[in-house]
Structure formats: C-alpha cells, structure tokens
Amino acid sequence: MSTRPPILFPLFAELETLEGVGPKTAKTLAAIDITRPRDVLFTLPYSGIDRRRRETVQGANYPETVTVEVTVGDHRAPQRRGGPYRVNVEDAATSFQLVFFHARDDYLRRILPTGQRVVVSGKVELFDGMAQMVHPDHILPPNEAGDIPDFEPVYPLTAGVTQKTMGKAAHSAVTRAPELPEWIDPAQKASAGWPDWHEAIARAHAPKDMADLSPSDAPRERLAYDEFMAHQLTLGLARAKLRRTKGRATVGTGKLQAKVLDALPYTPTGAQTRAIAEIAADMAQDRRMNRLLQGDVGAGKTLVALKALLIAVEAGGQGVMMAPTEILARQHLEGLTPLAEAAGVVIEILTGRDKGAERRRKLAALKAGDIQILVGTHAVFQKDVEFQDLRLAIVDEQHRFGVRQRLELGRKGAQADVLVMTATPIPRSLSLAQYGDMDVSILDEKPPGRKPITTALVSQGRMDEVVDYLRRAIAEGRQAYWVCPLVEESELIDLSSAGERFKRLRAALGEGVVGLVHGQMPPEEKDAAMAAFQRGDTSVLVSTTVIEVGVDVPNASIMVIERAESFGLAQLHQLRGRVGRGEAASTCLLMYQPPLSETGEKRLTTMRETEDGFRIAEVDLEMRGAGDLIGTAQSGLPRFRIADLEGQAALMAVAQSDARKLLNDDPDLTGARGQAARILLWLMEQDQAIRLISVG
Predict the structure, then answer these.
(1) Residue (of 388, 364, 302, 373) closest to 343 by Cα position
(2) 377 phi, psi to nearest 5 deg
(3) What's the rounded Cα separation, in Å, for the pair 136 and 382?
C-alpha cells in the first residue's frame, strides 16, 4: 500500500478548497504549519467565548463578552479625524455605548438604524464609568441572531488570520471529514468511553463549554490517543524490521573482558553486571540488537560500553562508539584507552579534525581490521569510512540521534548490533516517545566509592567567601571547576564572562593557579589547558561549560556554577556529576543572582534535595515540556498537534502496548484492524512507517 487511500483525498486537498480560505490566507496559515484540510482538523480550539444571550450588560464582570438585545439610539459622529464614533443603545435594564474607530458613518447608520432592535455581541468594558462595547464581534437583526453560537470556539491564530476565518475553515474541514474504519482496540475504546473518529473530530471543534476543552474530555483524549498510536505503530514497525533484519550472532570468549576486570580497582555494580548480561544475550542472537542503555551521571556506563565492544572484538570483529561532539568523542577515548590497553586492544579516534595523510592512514587501518575499536563523531557516517567487520555500533545519544540515524548507522555494518547510551536519565513518557522501538537497560546504582556530593545555594553577593573557600581548598591540594554561564549565547560576551572571571580569580589566587577553557580557543590551547588541570599543574579551571571540558579528574572535588539559575536542570545535574569521582568529599556551589524567579528557585532547590537523575529528569519535564527538554528540532521527537507528552504519559503507555499487540497479532497490518491502522498512518503522515510496510 504505497499510495494514499482515496478515502483521505479530501483531507489532503489544497487549503483553498476550504470555505473562506483564499491564496493569501493559505500562505499566512502555512506559517503555523497548516497547509491542508487535515492540518485544520488537527488544530483544535484552545479556549472558548460564552455568547449565551443575556437580558442586560448590567452586573457583567468587566471586561467581559456579553450578547444582548438592544434598541438603537442616537449616533454621534467623531468631532475630530480618527476620533471614536459612538452609538447609544439600551438593553432591558440600562443604556451603554457601541464604539467604532475609522468606521464609515453611512455603513453604521445602515446596520444600526435608530429605533431598531438588534442583537450585539462583544467585549464590554467600563470607560469613565460608562459601559461600552468597542467594535462588536456580531451585529444582527433578532431573527438572524440564532447564527451566534452559545459557546464560540477560539482557535490559535497567526497574524493576518481572524477567528472568523479560522472558524469557517474548521467548519468546512469537519464537513468533509470521512467516516473512517476503527483502528483502536474495541475493548480499550469501550472502557475509555471514546467516540468514533469522525464524531470525535466534530465534537472537538464544537465545544459546548470550557469542560469540553479539557485534554481528558473523551473526544480530545481519543484524538490524542490516535497520535500516540500512530507514533507507536511507526516505532513498532521499525522495531519489527530490526528484529527481522538478519543480524549475526556475536559471541565473546570472555578473555579480553577478564583482563579488564582484573585491571579494575573495584568490582562492577549489580546494575552494571545485569546490563552487560542483557547486552551479551542480545549480541549472541542472530537478529540485530536495538537496545537503549540509560544511566545516571556516574553510574559507570563507560565500563558497560567497553565490555560490549570487547565482545565484538573477541568474536573477531570491530566496534564503533559514536559521540555527538568532538570533545565528547575525546572524552570517551580518554575513558576507554586505559581499559582497552589493559585488554591489549587497538583503539583509535576519527573526527572531522583528521585530514589528508593521517585520515587516509586511519581509514586503511580500519578497512584492514587493524583498528579494533573506533571512537568518532558524525565523521564516521561519511561514504569513504569502511570497516572490515563492524559488529557493534554504540551511539552516545545526547539526544541528537533520531530513529533515522540509528537505521543509517546499521548500514555501515550490514548486520551490526546497535546500542544507544543516554548521558542523563530520560523520564518514562519521553523514553516511550523517543525510544519506543528499543529494549531498555537501566543503570540505577552508583559504583562503590562514589561519595555523595554536598550541594549548597549561595547568593552571588557572597563571592568573596567563595573565593576564600577555594583558597583554603587549594592549600589542601584539592582542585575545583568554576563554570560561567554563556551570556546570551553570544560568542564574544561568552568569552568576556569566562575571561573576566579568570582574571579576577588569578588576581585573588595567584599566578599559574588558574586555567581557562572557552569555546573560542583553538583546539590545541583547549587541550593544553585541560591537560594542565588533569596533571594538577593548575588548581582551578574556569570554563563556559565543563561538559566541554569533559576530562575525568578524580582530584577535582569542588564545582562552582555561577548564575546557576540560567542553566537547565539536566545540565546542572551533568555538571555536578563531574565531581565526586575521587577520595575527597565533594561540594557543588550553585551561585545565583537574587531575586530568584519561581522556576529558578524550583530548579536549584531540586538540585539541593536530590542527586537522583531519574527524579531530576521528571521535575525537568514537568517544568519545561518535552520539546524543550530535548530541543525539538534535533530530537527526532514527534511534534504532536493534540496530544501532550507530559500530561498524557499514561495514554502513551497504553498506545504502546496496543500498537505492539496489534503488530504481534497482525505483523503486516492486513486484517480489518490492520487495514484501519494503515489509514491512521497515512492520516498522521507517518511516511517512515508506510515505507516500512511497503518494503516489509
């Protein structure tokens, strides 16, 4: 089924086929992603105006919208150009004025003849003690007043489109919405009390009161569920395709892994051992692994990743570990190298920085199989990068890889297993939305020896005390990170904020004690500053975000974050995780500029109260919303028009199990419900899923 079903044609016609939409309006609506009748159907009213008829404007809760029948009195034309044109009117209990600006008096005298009865509807406010209605929304003779709805839906608009136009277009789109076969499980639909699709659309566009606008109102909830269901079917089809894809059984001998365990100063946690066992079991099967490894900061993902890569090498193959940025790739290389060397394995890095002869040498070694583990950035995606025998690809997610890139990576090694790692935990609703096609392993224990970190909130005014605290810590041989905010994301200001702090700390703490790293430095200088801090030549490292620093310095036990209120929760949690890696008790000082906003305070107190990344992720989601949390543009996260990921996480979970069950019972979607589900996928424009069915 590689073409759109005819039943949906009317919903994918030109926008101009809708009543009241001309070429100009169509162009304007395109700015808010409305380009076809289906988009209008899925743009639901977000509010409503009560236009039920009243006897009088008296006692109204000004400013308030009122619909009332009046007798038209005298007209008062403006005294000066551009002044207000006023018409006195009288309802059952009081008199008030209708006010117009820039209106033609011949037109007003025609629609408001003195002595006639008319029904007016609009916002009434008090001006100099007198009630007035400026530019009524409706002026109709009493016999036509039935055209004014009791409850008028209010649509999201863009400049140049009125509520009237939008209302007309929506009405027109609803009239051409077809009756569609049912794709929801009948038992689920009955227990939730949901209407059919067509009725749900009609009712969602014709709310009777504010309660009908609630996301939990049956018609709206059903439409949200449809979006979740289509998304979960897409993920489910991708998952089924990966499972059907022949993989290769990769079974390790355990020899290299044993060498690494011998070299470790501690024993792995139960969670690490469990995750490694799950990964090894997946790799040993002859279908492709598609697993997500979620762990909190400092839960020891590196060890799990390395052991998985070693399984690939033990089986005679190669492994690749991808990172979103060059700095993170280098950090992985630094973390993996000592362990890889203990196992006697050749590890190399490939980034955009590799040019010419050096790059050619690495590519040749990779193709010959001389490089066993490769660490790299997106550069690994380039055409000329060939492996001799790629068995495992690990993607360090950082939220920048969508489903598409994961499939792309699998093509480098036609049957390579895929393991995705996330840097910080993801709330359940998001992981369902973004990784519903994957199996999940969770690391929720800290390795032994990780001491809790004391977190304190300190006002920016106590800067001198903080500097004194650092001076004493340095005297004891400890090291500290000092993070400055990116001011307004501007490169130049960013440099001065870290640069200024560096100068002041150098003046206070002495020459040669403080290092500096910022985004504008040439890579060599950056590396040199980090290396000096790692060796302990400098005691304080000032930087714009330590994520950039990315080096693991066990002796660093103090993290100062300046203007902490300007960072997101996930970022603060990630920064704090840079300390607490050594013997000394660690401290994180969150410096803020009072007064704190309510959200700023909630973020900082959450940090003070908990070190649990899973809890922090939930709070972050509540506060910011899904798109923000991942940065919608690069998230590969669906943009839902009706559904709300945070508020309706439970609905998403039901949709996932429903979609998986349907695909389990009817993998090719050829049964009656399967055929209906295909229509849903076309309706929701899940092209990727449609391609999977047509190819699959």
Answers:
(1) 373
(2) -105, -160
(3) 62
Q: What is the residue whose two structure tokens read 């650092």?
A: 470
Strand locations in 247-302 (E): 290-295
Structure-block tokens of residue 109: 């005298």
- Percentage of residues of the chain with pLDDT beyond 70: 88
* Same domain (yes/no): 605, 675: no
**How far is 588 from 569, CA to CA, in rounded Å?**
14
CA distance 151 to 529: 65
Q: Is the omega angle on the peptide bond into residue 452 within 30 degrees of 0, that is, cis?
A: no
Question: Is residue 239 located within the same domain as residue 261?
Answer: no
Pair 37, 18: CB distance under 8 Å: yes
- Which distant-in-sequence residues (6+ apart) come within 8 Å of 380 by Cβ? 320, 322, 350, 374, 412
CATH number (domain holding residue 92): 2.40.50.140
The verdict on pTM exceeding 0.70 is no
**Phi/psi class of residue 203: alpha, beta or left (left: φ > 0; alpha: ψ in -120 to 50)?**
alpha
Buried b (16+ CB within 10 A) or exposed e, 442-465: bbebbbeebeebebebbeeeebee
pLDDT digits (tens, 9 = 90+) for 503-542: 899 999 988 899 988 777 787 788 788 888 988 999 999 9
User: Is the previous residue joined to 595 through a cis bond, with omega within 30 degrees of 0?
Assistant: yes
Same domain, 432 and 475: no
Locus of tokens 């005014």: 461
Residue 597 CA, chain-centre distance (Å), reads 23
Tokens describing residue 670 = 């050829």
At 630 the pLDDT is 39
What DSSP letter does each residue of 635-668 carry, written as one string? H-----SS--TTTTHHHHHHHHHHHHHHHHH-TT
Q: Cβ of 500: how many Cβ atoms within 10 Å?
A: 12
Distance CA 207, CA 465 (A): 59
